[in-house]
Amino acid sequence: MRVLLLSPLPPPAGGIATWTDHLMQSGLPDDVAWRLIDCAVRGKRSGKPSRRRLGEELRRAWRIRNELRHALDEEQADLIHLNTALSVGGMLRDSCLLQLARRRGVPVILHCHRNLPDAAAHRCARFLIRRLCGRSGRVICLNRPSRDYLQKVCGVTADILPNFLSGVEEPEPKPVPPNIRNAVFVGELSVQKGCDVILKAAQALPDITFRLVGRVKEDWLCESLPENIRLTGQKGWKGVQQELREADLFLFPSRSEGFPYAVLEAMANALPVIAADVGAIPEMLGRDGGILIRPGDTDGLIAAIGRLQDARLREMLGRRNAKKVRDCYTAESVLSRLSNIYQKVLEQHQEELT
């Protein structure tokens, strides 16, 4: 089958771009031929943060629409897979793309890469989400809260498809120290990602070094840092892997998530995880991969770190995390499920035509 994939590639890095990158690296299923329309930011904004300008966004939307129209003119698609971050501007663009696909009679799978309850916080966003779902042949989401929201609010039965990693291997064994020496966070340094909680916990736990890997979004977080905080700046994939290999514990107290790649990479590196109870994280960690805390709960984070001073518990949680990634979140297992979804959409489309 021929699938037209509308999705960004890095740079800049991001959840959807990372997903696309892993897809391209994975060795695609034999029964699927993808053609990619790269929806990433280009030009001056590419690869670095900056305020979005209306003119740039309109040009970007026009470019994507023209590439889609040319591909449909060439009859190179049996279906369209549209990845969306569910921002208001992005959904306005996606609505136009869906309308074009609908006129050409090509079914569309809408893949929502954000936690739906958070994305639908405003009335305009809720209207656009319902509009997109109503024009799509199938909807894919990242976690159970999103699936439940779509069923309750939009009357849509969505498929849950987790994010995945390509080239997953069993991590090399490493000694587990008796006490936690290094705790690491990977992501954008902001209150939204819970970095304020980590800074407060660091003040209470001076014997642990807290390494924060990522771009600083809010400068005030860097003022009067505790001596045991290390800001490494943004790192590439190899640099992040090195940070994870040298860490004893992974922290991710983010206040909102869909299916975070940062947690998935930490699990693949056999790290125990302390994370906020949001998005897909409870499904990822299960009962035996880490400790969940409430968003914004500094005392909860400090208590969880105290519990994981038990070296045998850390080793057990990390080992189970690595096994779960190999069992559930490899490209082979997830893309096989995606291929089945494609097949069902095509079969349903053929039934509607006849």
Q: What characteristics describe this protein?
A:
alpha/beta, 45% helix, Rossmann fold, six-stranded parallel sheet, 354 residues
What does this structure look like?
Strand 7, helix 7 and strand 8 form a beta-alpha-beta unit. This protein has a 6-stranded parallel beta sheet, with helices on both faces. A 6-stranded parallel beta sheet has the order 9-8-7-10-11-12, sandwiched between helices. The relative contact order is 0.12. The chain has 2 domains: 187 residues, Rossmann fold (3-Layer(aba) Sandwich), CATH 3.40.50; 147 residues, Glycogen Phosphorylase B (Rossmann fold, 3-Layer(aba) Sandwich). The protein is of the alpha/beta class and 354 residues long. Helix 2 packs parallel to helix 3, helix 7 crosses helix 11 and helix 9 packs across helix 12. The protein starts with a strand and ends with a helix.
Give a concise summary.
This protein has 13 helices and twelve strands. With 354 residues, the protein is α/β, with parallel strands linked by helices.
Present the secondary structure layout.
Elements: E1 2-7, H1 15-25, E2 33-38, H2 54-73, E3 79-84, H3 88-104, E4 108-112, H4 116-119, H5 123-135, E5 138-141, H6 144-154, E6 159-160, E7 182-186, H7 195-204, E8 209-213, E9 229-233, H8 237-246, E10 249-252, H9 261-268, E11 273-276, H10 281-285, E12 290-293, H11 298-307, H12 311-328, H13 331-353
Helix pairs in contact: 2-3, 3-5, 7-11, 9-12
- CATH topological fold name of the largest domain: Rossmann fold
- Note poorly predicted spans: 46-50
- Using the 3D structure, state the CATH architecture of the largest domain: 3-Layer(aba) Sandwich
Give a short account of the largest sheet.
6 strands, parallel
Total beta strands? 12
Q: Structural class of the helix and strand makeup?
A: alpha/beta
Total domains? 2
Label the overall shape. globular
Order of strands across the main sheet: 2-1-3-4-5-6
Annotated CATH homologous superfamily of the largest domain: Glycogen Phosphorylase B
Rounded mean pLDDT is 93
Helix/strand order: EHEHEHEHHEHEEHEEHEHEHEHHH
Main CATH class of the largest domain:
Alpha Beta
Put simply, the count of helices is 13
